[in-house]
Amino acid sequence: MNIYLEAFTIFFKIGAFTIGGGYAMVPLIENEIVTKRNWIDKDDFIDLLAIAQSSPGILAVNISIFIGYRLRGIWGSIVTALGTILPSFLIIIAIALFFHNFKDNTVVEHIFKGIRPAVVALIAAPTFSMGKSAHINRYNLWIPIVSALLIWLLGFSPIWIIIAAGIGGFLYGKWKSKQEKENIHS
């Protein structure tokens, strides 16, 4: 199968059948791109995901663009972005056309209430997987916990957390490099 068509189909399918936004799509994208097809390795996927989360815009579109670009450059990013965006666009058009027919339907309301816990699970599962891949351990577990608490409880902007984490990582890397040089010369 043509890689452009295959990539479009994968992202279209994920976009069409995932409720809950970009974070709910992450495990599905990882399964298709990393596990099943080995188009991108796990570490690269984690790096692309970090960049996608740090970039302005919709996570699902960002990650699809970065993966498409990694696979086939500009045209790959266009194809994967269209695959991700098109299902939502078509669904929104359909809902807009027929919303007045089912907006007060209790069955539809109950369906969405039932879907919510599954969406939470879809978001939580890749968090633990990414934690393992990012080598989160008992020594650095405090970083995501403090970050989450600063955002959730104190209302810190995620942008400041990302900037602080980037600066902290840079300084830690410099310190670690200096320590290794001192150990070599000792």
Notes on the protein architecture:
- The longest helix is centred in the middle third of the chain and has 44 residues, at 59-102.
- The chain has helices at residues 3-17, 22-36, 42-54, 59-102, 106-133, 142-152, 158-185.
- Helix 1 packs antiparallel against helix 2 (22-36), helix 1 crosses helix 4 (59-102) and helix 2 (22-36) crosses helix 5 (106-133).
- The model has no long low-confidence stretch (mean pLDDT 87).
- The protein has two domains: 3-135, no CATH class; 137-186.
- The chain is mostly helical and 186 residues long.
- It is built from seven helices and no strands.
What average pLDDT do the residues reach? 87
| Residue share in helix | over 70%
Oligomer: single chain
How many domains make up the 3D coordinates? Answer: 2
**Number of E strands:** 0
- First-residue to last-residue Cα separation: 57 Å
SSE topology string: HHHHHHH
Beta-strand percentage range: under 5%
Report Rg: 20 Å
